[in-house]
Amino acid sequence: MKITFKLFATLTDYLPADARRSNQVELDVAPEAPISQIIEPFGLPTRLVHLVLVNGKYISPEQRMSTTLSEGDVLAIWPPIAGG
């Protein structure tokens, strides 16, 4: 099934070079694949996977090992961001 995978801020560097400008890539994933398995091939450091949203809904760290997606879902990830 197809989903859209988006990475923001410094995480865009983990996307394929041709997807960095748009900060997203379309993925074909298995329906039973949890979020943790979907992001694994991108090599994101765990400490940088801070805010995880599926269709705008927050997914807590405990849920990322078991939450699966549906056709057309959007998986978005932000690193920790500090500002002042």
Key features of this structure:
mainly beta, five-stranded mixed beta sheet, 84 residues, single chain, 1 helix, Ubiquitin-like (UB roll)
Structure report:
The chain has 84 residues and is mainly β. It has a single domain, classed as Beta-grasp domain (Ubiquitin-like (UB roll), Roll). The protein has one helix and five strands, in the order ββαβββ. Strands 2-1-5-3-4 form a five-stranded mixed β-sheet, with no helix packed on it. It is globular. The protein starts with a strand and ends in a 6-residue tail after the last strand.
Largest sheet: 5 strands, mixed
In percent terms, what proportion of residues is strand? 25-35%
What is the 3D form? globular
Radius of gyration: 12 Å
Look at the structure and give the mean pLDDT: 94
Number of domains: 1
Kindly report the name of the CATH homologous superfamily. Beta-grasp domain
What top-tier CATH class fits best?
Alpha Beta
Give the CATH topology.
Ubiquitin-like (UB roll)
Could you tell me how far the N terminus lies from the C terminus, measured between alpha carbons in angstroms? 41 Å
In N-to-C order, the SSE pattern is: EEHEEE
- Strand order within the widest beta sheet: 2-1-5-3-4
CATH architecture: Roll
Give the low-pLDDT segments: none
Percent range of helical residues = under 10%
Q: How many beta-strand runs?
A: 5
Number of separate helices:
1
Structural class category: mainly beta
